[in-house]
Amino acid sequence: VGSMLKTPKFPIWLCSINGTHSVLFGTNQLLLSDWKMEHVFHLYFYNGQHKQMRTAHLTIGALDG
């Protein structure tokens, strides 16, 4: 995977899951400029559906030993 996919210029991805469009995004600007921040970071998932009461919070990181 190229470096621009691992650390994109803008951490926003548009997703289509089973025909439903969603947004996956990050809020830590250090993720944009420091590849070391990729060890553990947070993403948020929002699909705008009425049944989604709040934005889902995801923690992405390596598992410890």
TrEMBL record:
Residues 1-61 form the Deubiquitinating enzyme MINDY-3/4 conserved domain. Keywords: Hydrolase, Protease, Thiol protease, Ubl conjugation pathway. InterPro entries: MINDY-3/4_CD, MINY3/4. GO terms for biological process: protein K48-linked deubiquitination; proteolysis. It holds the Pfam family MINDY-3_4_CD. Its EC number is 3.4.19.12. It is an enzyme of class 3 (hydrolase). One of its GO terms (molecular function) is K48-linked deubiquitinase activity. It catalyses: Thiol-dependent hydrolysis of ester, thioester, amide, peptide and isopeptide bonds formed by the C-terminal Gly of ubiquitin (a 76-residue protein attached to proteins as an intracellular targeting signal). The keyword Hydrolase applies. It comes from the Eukaryota. Hydrolase that can remove 'Lys-48'-linked conjugated ubiquitin from proteins. Belongs to the MINDY deubiquitinase family. FAM188 subfamily. This is Ubiquitin carboxyl-terminal hydrolase MINDY.
